[in-house]
Amino acid sequence: MGRSEREAVGRGERLYRAAGAVVADHERAVDAVRTALKPLYDDLAARELDGIPVARLKEATGGRLRLGEVERAGFRTVGDVLEAGPYRLRQIPGVGAQTADQAVAAARRMAEAARDAVAVHIDVDRPEPRTTALVVALHVLVEAGPEARRAVDAAATLAARLGPLLADAAPAAGRLRMLLAGRAGRERAPAALAAVRELTARAERAGVPELIAQASVDLLRGPASEVAALVDFELRSAEYYGLLAEVSARTPDPAAAEGHLPGEVAERVRAQPLDDTRRRVSLRGYQAFGARFALAQRRVILGDEMGLGKTVQAIAALAHLAPRGRGRFLVVCPAGVLINWTREVEARSTLRVLPLHGPARQEAYADWWEHGGVGVTTFDALRGFAPPAEGELDMLVVDEAHYVKNPAARRSLAVAAWAGACERVLFLTGTPMENRVAEFRSLVRILRPELADSVGESDGTAGSTAFRRAVAPVYLRRNQQDVLSELPALQHTDEWEELSASDEDAYGEAVRAGNFMAMRRAAYARPEKSAKLQRLREIVEEAAANGAKVVVFSAFRDVLAAALGALTEGSAGAAAVHGPLHGGVPPARRQGVVDTFTAAVGHAVLLAQIEAGGVGLNLQAASVVVLCEPQIKPTLEHQAVARAHRMGQVRPVRVHRLLAVGGVDERMVRMLENKARLFDAYARRSEVAESTPDAVDISDPALVRRIVEEEQARLNGGR
């Protein structure tokens, strides 16, 4: 027993103490969050109980309780009963000890259920001491980042293994210890010492001591000032809420978080490992499941509702594959979000990323092909690159994949060719079906032809349950309301306006000409007398008074031009209006406009064509959304609203849809409602379909003809 043995034990003990210390540091930081959180949950639960009548306690006990005397004594709510306790209830004439005890026990069960159900919302515009204390406590964990979580997990595993080994190896550190250890201890010591050496050396090679040391520094750093913490929360609220969900162990319904997949599919996905060494961001539980789904099922559609972080889930899947020698990935997306994709990959992972776009795209493509990494290109640019041979591409990611729903389109053929040569393909789309179930089936056909063929017309006719069961191996969707309890309120308001005489004249001209698009924007044709523009000004002025940011969407550039004129000449002020964004604005410039809008202090307005600004861009700086006219596709409106009402939004979002009484707007609103029902039945989870696809779906050309003919008949009949 010599110096070498003592040094080996000493190294193991130092590593063991450091591992235990960082676990304790992390637990203290977590306890600080729980301490700040408890009074908030208690208060929210108490408010819930104060709104529940005493009579509900009878239901909770299967009708066994008689509570008439309790109510007559002035105890009106479950909260009153809980506060009173059994002793006070027993003092009520006619209320026995058993009734009092059962009533309080039932009230306590309701209180526990209420605490589990309530969600804490942090109002950055009206902070109060308790929520501010919570943000300050969370700030420590957010600043420490996912590396701290990784360090704590590694430290906990290391400590659990080193502890028993060090106890057995201790006699090897000295002759006297060895003599006193007894025969069994002397026999265990050499093997334990060898195991300590191996475990310590492996941890040192992996950089675990440095990881633990950095995490300790980060976790012991003093708390930020309240102002700094609140500002950081506004910028990174998704990370704060994600940690809050983790610390409070308030996860969403497991079935909803797993997209209500059949048991055998869900079990296979849960068993899929997920390597986080190349990732720079923590995932929520449902996001980790989405990344695992992509890896386990290999060729899939991730159809999460917009705002749930599909991009991050895709990056997590790529980051998992990268350390395994797989290093060439391609992302195909609309031009408007190419810059956003390159930024997200850089920010969320350590993967190399290259935009394959613009005049130098062939040179960039050659660089990417030689050195690997994540290439990001557009649907149009993809057609200029030759599809790879089988096995040359490690994963293909297609963002806004509903762009390739038409199998005959050139971009669809290009994506299909690349997908056919790649073992792993991930389609991302929050709107996998816009008009017909057949469109959704066409996406499945690119990924799994045999599965698409097995989903026949009878499945669609049978309804959504059969349809979703059939496509479960390839399709995962979660909805915001099921997995994001912290999302602020979303308020929709249809702003019905009576057309001015000038508006009516413009509309009549468009109807007589049979020009459907002119009918849709006739309310803006004569801006000086436009009723819709007047209402837009009022909405923007109200937002300005409240310091809120506004995004204004329209399908038409001339409508945006009219809105720009109306807002810049009024009280809103020219300096507050950004854009308009439209398809003619280069992607880099488009992202720059959004960045400037986001960075603006206080009120600002962003004008955007709905096809350009409603896809891919993150606009959660805005808390007011204005839709200048109803859209032919309900998914366009959903996409536009989801640009603002998404993970990271910290304020309630108000959506105003400007509609004209009578005419095309009313007819389109009815059409949107039907199409939304179809989408809900098939692309979302639903127990029973509204009806067969063909019964509620109308192709757009037929719809246009019908609306124009009906409006011509209506106006002609009025003369």
UniProtKB/TrEMBL annotation:
Domain (Helicase C-terminal) spans 532-696
Mind listing the GO molecular function terms for this protein? ATP binding; helicase activity; hydrolase activity
Keyword check for Hydrolase, yes or no.
Answer: yes
The Helicase ATP-binding domain covers which part of the protein? 291-450
- Matches recorded under InterPro entries: Helicase_ATP-bd (IPR014001), Helicase_C-like (IPR001650), P-loop_NTPase (IPR027417), SNF2-like_sf (IPR038718), SNF2/RAD54-like_C (IPR049730), SNF2_N (IPR000330)
Q: Does the keyword Amino-acid biosynthesis apply?
A: no
The UniProt keywords, alphabetically, are: ATP-binding, Helicase, Hydrolase, Nucleotide-binding
Query: What is the name of the protein in this document?
Result: Helicase SNF2
Taxonomic placement: Bacteria, Bacillati, Actinomycetota, Actinomycetes, Kitasatosporales
